[in-house]
Amino acid sequence: MAASYHLFFIIYLSGFAAFPIFSFVYANANTTQHSWTPINHHLYHSGEGLIEKIKSLVHRHPDKLTVETIQAGTKDYKADITVVTYSQNWEQSDDKSKLRILLSFGQHARELISSELALRILSALGEEQFPPEMDPASLHDTLENVVIKIVPIENLNGRKIVDAGELCERRNGRGVDLNRNWAVDWGKKEKDYDPAEEYPGTAPFSEPETQIMRELAVSFNPHIWVNVHSGTDGLFMPYDHKKSTPDGLPSQRMRELLDELNVLYCSKRCLVGSGGTAVGYLAHGTATDYMYDVVRVPMAFTFEIYGDDKASGADCFKMFNPIDQTTFKRVMDQWCASFFTLFKLGPVCLM
């Protein structure tokens, strides 16, 4: 039988929405060929290895960094989330008087690059590896009145599955998409809904990971929230579950900040705007929508820091993560610098 070509419509899901890509797959009588890229262990830590490296970093800088592990769950399913807090002279200062920023990485298990960025940012906060073109004095001044809480791997149970070889897994250890498990517009399913990707759980906050993150957000009461993903290049604000942005000055300020970051660090190539509008797909029950609508975080964002739109829909590691040293370094430098610009501009935008 002659070989033939078939066009498949493949949906792959990033931090908040589904992205359509067309993929030509060569097929003969009985086979379909896929290209699978393994994890590059020269560039990427295991999930548990990354957490241990972060704890060692914190131990070296007790004047700036502290770490805690928060646990939740039942006898059948438990989750641990490591949280690192940065504050200059934290023992003598009142954190409530400072700008408070909450960052979450690794919510989707297969997006390893996001957690590596968390380590890179923490290395800069510890003044071991500075962002490009930023001197130590400038860094110190930028962070003098800021408290930052960083969750390097929100979904450690799912990450363990990826580390074991299931490179397309994005859900947690019992098959729930943690970015569909929040209470704003929870449970609504689009026509392209795939439970292997987007299963929202049995109820809002059914998962210990989202329970921990909700309590952390409520107790910390941040001024800025960023949920960091990969899958494309994007700077997004609410809303994910509808094709609109919030009304008024706060929305305008969020958009202006994202536009500036897009110029400075994305060469204007990043998608910018609401998740539901900029991408064209709606996502329901997301963390960013909850942070904005319920926790009342004044500036709530989802950053998408990398995506390979030429990768096969079946090649999950390559689709979501840089595979070579040059691209990896570019992503680290570019986005680390963008976060420190966010730390600097945040207080101005909130005035």
From TrEMBL:
<feature type="transmembrane region" description="Helical">
    <location>
        <begin position="7"/>
        <end position="27"/>
    </location>
</feature>
<comment type="similarity">
    <text>Belongs to the peptidase M14 family.</text>
</comment>
<feature type="domain" description="Peptidase M14">
    <location>
        <begin position="43"/>
        <end position="327"/>
    </location>
</feature>
<feature type="active site" description="Proton donor/acceptor">
    <location>
        <position position="304"/>
    </location>
</feature>
<keyword id="KW-0812">Transmembrane</keyword>
<dbReference type="Pfam" id="PF00246">
    <property type="entry name" value="Peptidase_M14"/>
</dbReference>
<keyword id="KW-0472">Membrane</keyword>
<dbReference type="GO" id="GO:0008270">
    <property type="term" value="F:zinc ion binding"/>
</dbReference>
<dbReference type="InterPro" id="IPR000834">
    <property type="entry name" value="Peptidase_M14"/>
</dbReference>
<dbReference type="GO" id="GO:0004181">
    <property type="term" value="F:metallocarboxypeptidase activity"/>
</dbReference>
<dbReference type="GO" id="GO:0005615">
    <property type="term" value="C:extracellular space"/>
</dbReference>
<dbReference type="InterPro" id="IPR034269">
    <property type="entry name" value="At5g42320_M14_CPD"/>
</dbReference>
<keyword id="KW-1133">Transmembrane helix</keyword>
<dbReference type="GO" id="GO:0006508">
    <property type="term" value="P:proteolysis"/>
</dbReference>
<protein>
    <recommendedName>
        <fullName>Peptidase M14 domain-containing protein</fullName>
    </recommendedName>
</protein>
